[in-house]
């Protein structure tokens, strides 16, 4: 076989095969995921709206971000509600779409200075309302999308014959991969769209800038339309599939049962609703009291509640699968909980390496595009390798990919640039590093999501997704805490000047190198240690 034939064979098996495994039944949840990713269209305009239109402090904005994050704490009870209302879950998508549309409509009115709005409430009050409505809508739709992603993988073929386990595993992996692809594709598309929409806006008068802001929010109204269209498409697909099964001799009741969770109706478990309420109550009480160590208290309280709810879920699994789920969750948590260098590393690239806004924006766009490519290329690996294998591989890769950033701090580009005619300079190294590193974070979650979709009880799929998502998201909170602690140990400061040009805080990157090295060591050691401990215990994961 020639090199060209081998390349084509690889392209066919990796890239084209993803298209071959794509089913029309996958499209509805992908449309909901895409709608969520497209919400990034207002990220830039929202930042400038606060700056240009609102007289609020940075502390107020930070506080509002805290409140805006609270609706995601409700994903646990929302997931259980989806299981309870399985046949009527489309109603929740309409509710979420209404909340999102209301948020964009309010912001359009504020951006275009609709006169009557200020007579009803202050502009800041309207903005707070819009900010809280939007995430409430997205969390409702996200919980339904998780349920749709499970329902989208059929258990039988067109003739009603049961699919084998290997086929189901491959299709669940493909579905979850495509879900992440849809999300990141939307983020990439709106990032490119924002570059076009805001080209030259800084030279326009304020009134014309407001008109552009309003146009962006009007465009945002397409987002709830996309998610609603996905649900309507799902309903049409179900009816057509039921008709095909009946044409092959299956009774209507048996055909409709293919879209109903196995195990019958779900009995309400009030622990999920009580736990979700306690989750919000803890966050509210601590967040409003502004006590010392508030982040740690919220993290500990949230972890206790989520672990309690996970215990409720695990009771519904066979003992071997329950132990495997615990081990898998611990390994994924350890991988995602490793700390990051923090903002100091970015400050260094701006001040010392002359990375400007445009280059950082291009770097972000390239990262999104290559994340998509990485997930597609590595999909066969995720479909045929165990979660433990993937985490170990990604951990070692993350350790290697930390070296370029360390090298940039210690001036490796000053050695490579003269020897390559200026090609391998700091920006080239940063681009290559981002290109290789970008898919890692998303890839780690796909096998976990596929495992849940394949092994969780059929009538509790949405609940499992919601609680496990909360658990893995807590790993990101742990990562943030670790990042904060390391930045307290290794102090990094950027230069700050007063209005008269006097330097009030001098730049100090002397400890950044130690910070980068410490983060790299923790990134490798913690996940590998978690794998070693779990795989030597009764919670060993082999899936």
From TrEMBL:
Give one Pfam family.
BT1
| Highest rank taxon of the organism | Bacteria
Q: Where are the transmembrane segments?
A: 30-50, 56-74, 86-111, 181-201, 216-236, 270-291, 297-317, 324-347, 359-378, 387-408, 428-452, 464-482, 512-534
According to its record, what are the GO cellular component terms? membrane
| Alphabetically ordered keywords of this record | Membrane, Transmembrane, Transmembrane helix, Transport
* Membrane topology annotation: Multi-pass membrane protein
What's the main place this protein lives? membrane
The signal peptide here is: none
Record's keyword annotation contains Transmembrane: yes
Q: Where in the cell is it found?
A: Membrane
Protein name from the UniProt record: BT1 family protein
């Amino acid at each position: 076989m020639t090199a060209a034939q081998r390349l084509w064979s690889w392209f066919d098996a990796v890239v084209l095969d993803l298209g071959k495994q794509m089913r029309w039944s996958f499209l509805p949840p992908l449309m909901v995921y895409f709608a969520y990713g497209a919400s990034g269209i207002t990220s830039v305009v929202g930042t400038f709206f606060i700056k240009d239109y609102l007289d609020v402090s940075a502390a107020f904005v930070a506080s509002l971000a805290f409140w805006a994050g609270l609706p995601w704490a409700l994903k646990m009870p929302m997931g259980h509600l989806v299981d309870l209302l399985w046949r009527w879950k489309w109603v929740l998508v309409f509710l979420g779409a209404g909340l999102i549309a209301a948020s964009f409509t309010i912001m359009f009115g504020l951006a275009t200075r609709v006169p009557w709005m200020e007579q009803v409430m202050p502009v800041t009050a309207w903005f707070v309302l819009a900010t809280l409505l939007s995430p409430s809508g997205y969390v409702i739709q996200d919980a339904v999308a998780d349920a749709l992603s499970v329902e989208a993988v059929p258990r039988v073929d067109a003739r009603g014959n049961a699919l084998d386990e290997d086929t189901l595993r491959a299709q669940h992996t493909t579905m979850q991969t495509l879900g992440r692809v849809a999300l990141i594709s939307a983020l990439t598309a709106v990032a490119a769209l924002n570059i076009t929409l805001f080209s030259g806006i800084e030279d326009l008068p304020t009134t014309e800038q407001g008109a552009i802001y309003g146009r962006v929010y009007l465009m945002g109204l397409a987002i709830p339309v996309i998610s609603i269209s996905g649900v309507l498409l799902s309903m049409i697909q179900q009816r057509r599939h039921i008709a095909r099964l009946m044409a092959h001799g299956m009774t209507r009741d048996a055909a409709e049962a293919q879209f109903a969770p196995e195990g019958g109706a779900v009995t309400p478990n009030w622990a999920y609703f009580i736990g979700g309420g306690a989750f919000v109550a803890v966050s509210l009480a601590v967040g409003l009291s502004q006590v010392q160590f508030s982040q740690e208290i919220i993290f500990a309280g949230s972890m206790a509640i989520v672990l309690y709810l996970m215990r409720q879920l695990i009771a519904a699994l066979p003992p071997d699968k329950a132990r495997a789920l615990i081990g898998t969750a611990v390994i994924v948590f350890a991988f995602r909980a490793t700390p990051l260098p923090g903002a100091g590393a970015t400050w260094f690239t701006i001040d010392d390496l002359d990375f400007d806004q445009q280059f950082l924006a291009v770097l972000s766009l390239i990262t999104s595009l290559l994340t998509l490519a990485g997930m597609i290329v590595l999909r066969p690996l995720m479909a045929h390798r165990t979660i433990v294998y993937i985490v170990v591989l990604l951990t070692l890769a993350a350790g290697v990919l930390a070296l370029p950033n360390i090298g940039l701090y210690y001036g490796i580009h000053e050695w490579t640039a003269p020897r390559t005619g200026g090609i391998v300079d700091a920006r080239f190294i940063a681009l290559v590093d981002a290109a290789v590193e970008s898919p890692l974070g998303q890839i780690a979650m796909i096998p976990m999501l596929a495992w849940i979709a394949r092994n969780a009880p059929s009538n509790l799929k949405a609940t499992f997704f919601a609680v496990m998502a909360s658990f893995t998201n807590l790993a990101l909170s742990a990562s943030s805490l670790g990042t904060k602690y390391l930045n307290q140990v290794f102090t990094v400061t950027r230069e700050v000047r007063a209005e008269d040009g006097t330097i009030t805080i001098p730049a100090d990157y002397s400890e950044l190198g130690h910070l980068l090295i410490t983060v790299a060591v923790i990134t490798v050691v913690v996940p590998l240690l978690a794998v070693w401990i779990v795989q030597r215990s009764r919670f060993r994961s082999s899936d």
